[in-house]
Write a structure and sequence with these properties.
Elements lengths: L1 E5 L5 E5 L9 E11 L1 H8 L15 E8 L11 E4 L2 E2 L5 H4 L10 E3 L6 E3 L6 E5 L3 E3 L6 H4 L2 H14 L8 E4 L4 H11 L5 E4 L3 H9 L4 E3 L6 H8 L6 E4 L4 H9 L6 E4 L12 H7 L2 E4 L5 H12 L9 E6 L3 H8 L6 E5 L1
Parallel strand pairs: 7-8, 11-12, 11-14, 12-13, 14-15, 15-16, 17-18
Antiparallel strand pairs: 1-2, 3-4, 3-9, 3-18, 4-5, 5-10, 6-7
Length: 343
């Protein structure tokens, strides 16, 4: 099969590699669509250093079951499926509490997080555990379905963890990949004023089209002042979905009493300062959102299947696997939102 194999920093190579065989409890999936996440881009460019080479990146796939391993009875060849990249045992204490993304024996296909990182879906085929599959609704295209994982993360961060309420004034910092899903979830959940903040006018235009009531580019104005000109009493919820530490610092500067804030986009180990006394008197509540879990995946599928959120509206670029190098270059630019790879 054809696969994009990452051998080192900036060494993503198209290769002919053996099709993997599914072991007991595993499923072989023919990948039809895979989202290109910023996490993948950071691994390719060396921004994220917790990578063991060689590895096939890509962790947002949808496809068709091609074969099943011994003991798999819930799936059969030809089933159209959505893949959750994080596998879990279902038996440890964290799994039984519903925190499968904290599983003590977790693994990830093509992504980030646990120590056990397996080959992902920038390839024609991938193997994963049967427990990570969800049935793709017939009404959804593979390109829409492959965005279930990032949409589920947005739902988990905005709704489950930060408990956004109808009418909340929400600021989303960073409206590229994951940020645009956070914005779409907030809009669908009834945000009052919904402010998009990004250094890319391209991303801001997409955000406006998908429901932002106001757009702010920090390169052209004082972003904090601009937010408070729109929201004199300050925001109810701020979501950092950008990645750079400057975005986290901007988020902290926006806090007023009772603000909820979610550290979502930054995945690199960088520091920022907090005034302990100020945090005490503000009663600002910090949340974060990492990975996904079955509850969030199911909610994301429902949002798409019922027409509440159309993830295809976030797609700006599609590339066949043979043009993966072009996809990498687009990921590094400002003029894009969601990039899809079609093996």
């Amino acid at each position: 099969m054809l696969a994009a194999v990452l051998h080192g920093v900036d060494r993503l190579v198209l290769e002919d590699v053996p099709v993997p065989d599914p072991g007991p409890g595993e499923v072989l999936v023919r990948v039809r669509s895979c989202g290109f996440c910023q996490t993948d881009y950071k691994a390719i460019r060396g921004i994220r250093t917790n990578v063991t080479f060689p590895i096939i990146p890509g962790h947002e796939p949808a496809g068709v079951v091609a074969a099943v391993g011994h003991g798999v009875t819930a799936w059969r060849e030809g089933d159209e499926v959505i893949v959750q990249p994080s596998g879990f045992c279902g038996m440890c204490a964290n799994c039984r509490l519903g925190f499968t993304h904290y599983c003590e024996r977790s693994y990830v296909t093509g992504g980030d997080g646990p120590d056990d990182v397996r080959n992902g879906s920038f390839a024609e085929f991938m193997v994963t555990g049967a427990e990570t599959l969800y049935r793709k609704p017939p009404s959804l295209s593979f390109d829409a379905a492959c965005q279930t994982e990032p949409l589920s993360g947005a739902w988990k961060g905005v709704i489950r963890n930060s408990e956004m309420r109808v009418g909340d004034d929400v600021v989303v910092i960073g409206t590229g990949g994951i940020g645009i899903y956070c914005l779409m979830v907030a809009r669908a959940a009834g945000a009052g004023r919904l402010i998009a903040v990004d250094v890319s006018d391209y991303a801001l235009e997409t955000a406006r089209r998908l429901g932002a009531t106001h757009c702010i580019n920090p390169r052209t104005c004082d972003a904090r002042k601009a937010v408070y000109d729109i929201l004199p009493e300050g925001p109810d919820l701020v979501v950092e979905a950008a990645g750079p530490i400057e975005a986290v610092r901007l988020m902290v500067s926006l806090l007023r009493r009772g603000t909820r804030w979610n550290v979502f986009g930054i995945t690199t180990h960088e520091t920022f300062e907090l005034d302990g006394g100020l945090m005490h008197f503000l009663e600002a509540r910090m949340d974060a959102s990492f990975g996904t879990n079955p509850e969030a995946m199911i909610h994301a599928i429902r949002l798409m299947e019922r027409g509440v959120i159309d993830t295809e509206q976030a797609i700006t670029h599609r590339f066949p696997l043979t043009r993966i190098a072009e996809a990498v270059e687009v990921m590094g630019g400002a003029a894009r939102n969601k990039v899809i790879v079609n093996p």
